[in-house]
Amino acid sequence: MAGHRSPGGRRVTGDPAPHRVPTRHAARHATTPGRGAPRRTVASTTAAVGAAFGVLSTGAFAAVTSTGAGSAIADAAESSTVATQLAANSEALSVDPADVAITGAHLSPVAYSVAGVDRADATEAAADVAPDAELASLDKAGRIADEITEQQAKEAAEAAARAELDALVARGGLDGWIAQALEICDLPQDLAPGVKKVIMAESGGNPRAVNLWDSNARAGRPSQGLMQVIPSTFRAYVHPSLAGRAITDPVANITAGVRYMIANYGMDTLEAGGRSNGSGGYVGY
């Protein structure tokens, strides 16, 4: 118990005057320069650091700066309140606190991934899919290239055949007439040798040849032209596009004779160059 002196000089005992609690104004005034800054307790410092980590763990970002000795530190309770408000208004990110490195007043970038997807698994899956997709793309491109090459080769062959046929027809003569007749009848040009053999046996390649000695001649319907057809046969078998031409027209006559042989003896007989007897001799049709 502390004592104090009375106005008369006597020491008296008793409770001293009650200590007045400083007002907020006095507390603030106490922190002004020259009066000494209040010391922070371990508890208040720990609370401030904890609040800062609370901000980090919720995904919010706080700037940390150092102002050196003598700088004011925010009150622990107020820091905690601010951190709580920031956390409440921030959407949490998937951040592992272990990935966060704090060095002095600097924050290291945080690595995070999409929720539910492991980065290693996603990378491995992408690595597995990429080669398969690439191979499929290369295979498709290869097939397309082969098809284009095949089509180009086919077109080139057709163009070459067309040029050869045009040249043959332009030269005229027996080979040109045969080629033109087969084309009009939409028949393959490889039938040309057989057709030529029939023509040479029937007329010797003379488009104006007329048979005046066989039974048809005696009946008044002589065989005529390269394929030696009678008028009724010509009219029945000439290609429709050439129906207006004369029986001795080389191309029209060949179309009539070829179509007649195919209809009555078959394609094989035409390809073989006509019918033949047991000894291999030519037999007229």
From TrEMBL:
Superkingdom of origin: Bacteria
Region span, Disordered: 1-40
UniProt-listed InterPro entries: Lysozyme-like_dom_sf, Transglycosylase_SLT_dom_1
Pfam families (alphabetical): SLT
Residues in Transglycosylase SLT domain copies: 194-266
Protein name per Swiss-Prot or TrEMBL: Transglycosylase SLT domain-containing protein
Organism encoding this protein: Pseudonocardia lutea
